[in-house]
Write a structure and sequence with these properties.
By secondary structure, the chain is of the alpha/beta class. The protein contains ten helices and 13 strands. The strands form three sheets. A seven-stranded parallel sheet has the order 3-2-1-4-5-6-10, with helices on both faces. Strands 7, 9, 11 and 13 form a four-stranded mixed sheet that branches.
C-alpha cells in the first residue's frame, strides 16, 4: 500500500484528509506535534510525533515510510495571534515548511500538496477572488503562506518538487460518518463557537466588528465543507501521481455569508437562539473574502456538493452533540 505523509493529520482538515486517503487505497502517515491536534483523530494510519522544524526527525520518518507524496496541512492559522506574534508564524509556517520540503526532496518524495489560504489576497472589497488576484496579505499568517508558495515554486525549479497549492476559504462542517470533526481547544472558528453558544456550553458569542461596509455591518466569508475540500486534495494528488502538472487553485463556493447570517442559520439548525454581544473589529480581518473557483472545476473536475450553509452547520452540529474528542 502506497503511503502519503500528512503533516497536521491530527488536526481538523488533516484528519478528514487521512480518512479520504485511506478510502482511496493509500496509507496515511500522520506527522504531528499534537500542539493543536488530537491523537484520537489519528484513526486511519500510524502517527509519527514530531515538529516540522526537526530535520533529523523528518528524515527518519521519510526513511521509515518512504511516502510517495506529502499533504502539508500543519501550520499556525489564527489571525489575532499572527498580529500579536508575527515571528512565531514566520518561524513555524515558513521555516517549518522549508525544512519539510528539503526533507521530501532529499528522500525523493516529489509530489507535494500544500494547504494555503485565501488570506494571501488581503482585502478586496466587492471583488470575487481568483488565482490571479493581486496578493496583499494583511497579517503574518497570510504573508507566511504566500512565502511558502513562493518557496515551493523555487524548490520545484531546483529540486523537482511537483506542487499543487490550494488556497482555502473558510472551512466548516464535519465528517458525515462522525469519525472526525472540528474540535479546537481553545475554539476560535465561527461555526463551532455559534454551536457552543446555542448549546449553552459557553457565554454569548462576540461579533467582532459591526461597522464593516456590508449589508449588515459584519464580515462576509465564503464557506466550504471540509469533505468537499478534501475531495479536491485527492483530485490534486491524483493529478500529480498521474504525471499531470502542478497548479494553484482556490477552493470556495463563490457565495459569501456574513457573520450574522451564519449565526442566524446556526440558531435555525439547532432550534436554539445563539446569544451574541458586539465588540470592536479585530486587527487583520478582511471585510469580504469570496472565491472564484472555476480553475478547480476546469482542471480538477471539482464541484462542492455539501457546501450549502444548512448542510455544513448540520454536520457540525451532529459532531458537536456527540462530544467531539472530549466526549
Amino acid at each position: 500500500m502506497q503511503k502519503v505523509l500528512v503533516t497536521g493529520g491530527a488536526g481538523y482538515i488533516g484528519s478528514h484528509a487521512c480518512k479520504a486517503l485511506a478510502a482511496a487505497g493509500y496509507l496515511p502517515v500522520t506527522y504531528d506535534n499534537l500542539s493543536t491536534g488530537w491523537a484520537e483523530a489519528v484513526r486511519f494510519g500510524p502517527l509519527e510525533r514530531g515538529d516540522l522544524t526537526d530535520r533529523a526527525r523528518l528524515d527518519a520518518v521519510f526513511a521509515r515510510h518512504a511516502p510517495v507524496a506529502v499533504m502539508h496541512f500543519a501550520a499556525l492559522s489564527q489571525v489575532g495571534e499572527a498580529m500579536r506574534e508575527p515571528a512565531l508564524y514566520w518561524r513555524n509556517n515558513l521555516c517549518g515548511s522549508l525544512t519539510l520540503a528539503e526533507a521530501a526532496a532529499a528522500a525523493g518524495c516529489r509530489d507535494f500538496v500544500f494547504s494555503s489560504t485565501c488570506a494571501v489576497y488581503g482585502d478586496h472589497d466587492g471583488v470575487t477572488l481568483d488565482e490571479a488576484t493581486h496578493q496583499a496579505p494583511l497579517n503574518a499568517y497570510g504573508a507566511s503562506k504566500r512565502a511558502v508558495e513562493d518557496m515551493l515554486r523555487d524548490m520545484g525549479a531546483t529540486h523537482g518538487l511537483r506542487t499543487v497549492i490550494f488556497r482555502y476559504f473558510n472551512v466548516a462542517g464535519a465528517d458525515t460518518d462522525g469519525d472526525v470533526g472540528e474540535w479546537h481547544m481553545p475554539e476560535t472558528h465561527l461555526v463551532p463557537l455559534a454551536l457552543a453558544a446555542a448549546a449553552g456550553d459557553r457565554g454569548a458569542l462576540t461579533i467582532h466588528g459591526t461597522d464593516y461596509p456590508t449589508p449588515d455591518g459584519t464580515c462576509i466569508r465564503d464557506y466550504v465543507h471540509v469533505s468537499d475540500l478534501v475531495d479536491a486534495h485527492l483530485s490534486g494528488l491524483a493529478r500529480l501521481r498521474s504525471g499531470g502538472g502542478g497548479g494553484v487553485f482556490n477552493l470556495g463556493t463563490g457565495q459569501g455569508f456574513s457573520v450574522r447570517e451564519v449565526i442566524e442559520e446556526a440558531g435555525r439548525v439547532t432550534g436554539r437562539p445563539v446569544p451574541v454581544t458586539e465588540g470592536p473589529r479585530r486587527d487583520g480581518d478582511c471585510t469580504r473574502l469570496v472565491s472564484g473557483s472555476a480553475q478547480a472545476a476546469t482542471d480538477l473536475g471539482w464541484t462542492p456538493e455539501r457546501s450549502d450553509l444548512e448542510t455544513m452547520i448540520g454536520d457540525a452540529w451532529r459532531w458537536y452533540r456527540g462530544g467531539g474528542y472530549a466526549g
